[in-house]
Amino acid sequence: MRNPIILCCFLWLCIIFIEVSGQCLEEQRSLLIQLKKELSVDYSTKSKLESWSLTTDCCSWDGVACKHQTGHVIRLDLSSSSINGEFNSSSSLFSLRYLQQLNLANNSFYPSPLPMGLQQLLSLTHLNVSGSSFVGQVPLEISFLTRLVSLDLSNHFGYPMMLESPDLKGLIRNLTDLRELYLDGIQISLTGSEWSKVLSLALPNLSVLSMSGCNLSGPIHPSLSQLKFLTHLNLARNNLISIVPDFLANFSYLISLQLCSCNLYGRFPENIFLIPTLRILEICTNPQLTGSLPKFPPGTTLEVIRLSNMDFSGKLPDSISNIAFLRNLQIDDCSFIGSITSSFQNLTELVYLDLSWNNFSGLIPSLASSKKITGLILSNNGFTGTIPSSYGNDLKNLEILNLRNNLLQGMIPSSLFTIPSIKLIALSGNRFSGQLQEFQNASSSFLREIDLSQNELQGPIPNSIFKIRSLNHLSLSSNHFNGTIGVGMFDDFKHLAGLDLSDNNLSFNVSGSNSKTLPYISRLRLGSCNIFEFPNFLRNQIHLFHLDLSNNRIGGALPNWGSRGWMLVAKQIEPLEI
Ligand SMILES: *[C@@H]1O[C@H](CO)[C@@H](O)[C@H](O)[C@H]1NC(C)=O
Ligand SMILES: *[C@@H]1O[C@H](CO)[C@@H](O)[C@H](O)[C@H]1NC(C)=O
Ligand SMILES: *[C@@H]1O[C@H](CO)[C@@H](O)[C@H](O)[C@H]1NC(C)=O
Ligand SMILES: *[C@@H]1O[C@H](CO)[C@@H](O)[C@H](O)[C@H]1NC(C)=O
Ligand SMILES: *[C@@H]1O[C@H](CO)[C@@H](O)[C@H](O)[C@H]1NC(C)=O
Ligand SMILES: *[C@@H]1O[C@H](CO)[C@@H](O)[C@H](O)[C@H]1NC(C)=O
Ligand SMILES: *[C@@H]1O[C@H](CO)[C@@H](O)[C@H](O)[C@H]1NC(C)=O
Ligand SMILES: *[C@@H]1O[C@H](CO)[C@@H](O)[C@H](O)[C@H]1NC(C)=O
Ligand SMILES: *[C@@H]1O[C@H](CO)[C@@H](O)[C@H](O)[C@H]1NC(C)=O
Ligand SMILES: *[C@@H]1O[C@H](CO)[C@@H](O)[C@H](O)[C@H]1NC(C)=O
Ligand SMILES: *[C@@H]1O[C@H](CO)[C@@H](O)[C@H](O)[C@H]1NC(C)=O
Ligand SMILES: *[C@@H]1O[C@H](CO)[C@@H](O)[C@H](O)[C@H]1NC(C)=O
């Protein structure tokens, strides 16, 4: 029974292959070769144009697809091809009349405007110039491409592009086949809710509308409710000054809704969470928007919930366990309360969890079955109890662990320091106590930052810590660590920029330092470290800007270090506490 299936699959692949390859027409080939000559390409990085050579069928070149019956080039994808420089307005590109799909995304055509020549490509159904650094007004000529189904002019980080004349209305009036419209980052000069009326009138069947950072104003107008086939709606980073209308919950095809930083207020309609198709919900940074989480029914399809920095409150519902594919839950900087229910145990797909800056209490979740998690941020709450053993033992993909400023206690398991991909361990401002145990394999870790300050840790600092060569920041201040630290123990720390050992019961022995000691240190705090002489290695520091040597026993005058005098060094250090 297996053979027919394999044959089918094989035939299907064959059909696809024949459809997009085929004999290259000489006339089409020479246009492409001419185009390659016109374009300024940085061949030191990867470019699709590398494969364009006369010895091969042009229909097989990277980014080129032909119609097999005719050999006409119908698809050209030159995205991410390291093309730079101005676009020749009489380019041979515009003679490729049969093109249906053109993608020039992610190149740099600065400072060219979008070329008017595009109007000659009347067969275009898909045009993508996102992130390609065109500048200025979008030309009226784009509106002549009446077969367009998908238009992506988005300009996320580029130079200013605008829609003034023609305005949005002029651009889309005749593009009645459009289903996907991406205008992110383009300055759209329409007053009030005009943009919404224009869109719903001209493009009632739109499926994707992405207009983040377009300088749109508001409020969100009822006319938007006519775009009921929307699957993706992104209006983030516009000053809409609006409530969130109830009708959004009636968009029964909606897959993603992005409304971060829109100056929204009022109460967020809970029913939006319950749209059966919704997978991505991002409404962060609308500090005046209130709301709470609903009871999630079984089969909820949400994968991403971002509600950071809003006025959401209440408890996390037990029914959160029904969001079986939840990957990303960011509800930091809200006013949530209560404890984290054991229902978190069922969130096996979780990759990123940020509950920081709320008023959660009770035990922190063990997340033993969330083995994919990379970021776990529970800081600034009222969590109590100890660190679950699952963190060091089961969460093998963890990169960021931030439990700062809670009421956690008990020992810090040394297994945390050997999580294979861990980069940041921040446990400061809790009540952790006892001694830190030695651990292995520290020298091969990715650890960049350890912050254990403001706890009740005691005993010696384990030698294993001094073997973590990758460390940039180490803070152990305000604990009860004791013993003597020699400056030579930092010989392995070639990248350390921040070190804080203040306010322990340590003795820091500075003798024996040399010109290679802590070469990149910029923030050094050694307050109350029983230091007797002025640290000689400071003489060589060129990155230092923050130094604290307060409450030590340094006698005599500050050293005079010749032409690179100490005071010269000190001038650029602030604050300086000795
Ligand atoms: C943009 O192109 C560069 C190569 O020129 C590539 O490294 C990068 O991943 C591309 N970015 C996107 C978002 O496609
Ligand atoms: C543009 O291309 C045409 C034809 O290939 C050429 O004659 C002309 O010099 C080019 N212009 C610029 C500014 O490169
Ligand atoms: C346009 O091309 C970029 C880069 O390849 C891609 O990320 C983006 O999804 C494309 N836009 C559309 C609408 O397909
Ligand atoms: C739109 O199309 C109509 C006729 O199909 C034409 O008269 C008009 O000039 C076009 N408008 C624009 C802005 O292209
Ligand atoms: C929208 O789609 C419907 C069919 O689904 C079609 O009858 C109607 O003409 C379309 N409207 C526009 C403006 O394309
Ligand atoms: C944004 O729109 C306002 C009017 O709503 C206008 O005054 C301002 O210049 C626009 N900003 C940009 C960058 O176009
Ligand atoms: C949502 O759709 C239902 C049923 O079609 C309708 O009764 C209700 O008025 C709609 N709500 C809004 C806010 O448009
Ligand atoms: C977790 O999932 C299992 C089976 O998938 C189910 O039996 C159990 O009730 C769920 N637990 C919670 C707390 O939702
Ligand atoms: C957080 O909890 C504390 C103590 O339970 C309470 O005083 C404070 O008002 C709460 N804050 C918020 C934002 O609910
Ligand atoms: C240390 O690394 C070795 C080899 O890479 C490995 O066999 C051993 O299990 C590791 N030990 C710990 C405690 O991770
Ligand atoms: C350090 O502290 C531990 C436990 O608090 C104690 O047992 C030990 O004697 C102390 N060592 C020194 C050198 O003070
Ligand atoms: C420092 O250690 C001494 C002796 O071990 C002890 O008496 C003292 O309480 C410790 N001080 C602090 C702040 O832990």
UniProtKB/TrEMBL annotation:
Q: What is the lineage of its organism?
A: Eukaryota, Viridiplantae, Streptophyta, Embryophyta, Tracheophyta
| Similarity remark | Belongs to the RLP family.
* Compartment list: Cell membrane
Q: Which SUPFAM superfamilies match?
A: L domain-like
Q: GO cellular component annotations, sorted alphabetically?
A: plasma membrane
Which segment of the chain is annotated as a signal peptide? 1-22
The record places domain Leucine-rich repeat-containing N-terminal plant-type at 26-66
Which membrane topology describes this protein? Answer: Single-pass type I membrane protein
Name of this protein: Leucine-rich repeat-containing N-terminal plant-type domain-containing protein
Q: Primary place of residence?
A: membrane
- Stretches that traverse the bilayer: none
Q: Sorted alphabetically, which keywords does the UniProt record give?
A: Cell membrane, Glycoprotein, Leucine-rich repeat, Membrane, Repeat, Signal, Transmembrane, Transmembrane helix
Family matches, as SMART domains:
LRR_TYP
InterPro entries attached here? Leu-rich_rpt, Leu-rich_rpt_typical-subtyp, LRR_dom_sf, LRR_N_plant-typ, RLP23-like
A Gene Ontology biological process in which this protein takes part is: defense response
One of its Pfam families is LRRNT_2
